[in-house]
Design goal:
This protein is mostly helical. The chain is built from four helices and no strands. It is 54% helix and 0% strand.
């Protein structure tokens, strides 16, 4: 499984969305991506990629696309 598939699967597992919904997915756009869901997402991403995200990056993580950009700071290549 490559990094993009891992990333997509985390979103699908945490939020119960389809792969087709991912590219346009944004924070608070769906009911499950609230503040609690956000922390579940961050925890799952940190586990999946064996990283520890900075607080500023956790706050800035506001969409599926923005997340890919932020994870590159942690040497996660897509």
């Amino acid at each position: 499984m490559n990094n993009l598939e891992k990333y997509e699967n985390v979103f699908i597992d945490v939020f119960g969305v389809t792969k087709e919904q991912l590219p346009s997915l944004e924070y608070q756009q769906i009911e499950t991506w609230d503040s609690v869901g956000h922390m579940s997402l961050i925890g799952a991403l940190e586990d999946a990629f064996d990283i520890m995200m900075d607080t500023d990056d956790i706050i800035d993580f506001n969409s599926f696309e923005k997340g890919k950009e932020l994870l590159q700071k942690y040497e996660v290549k897509f």
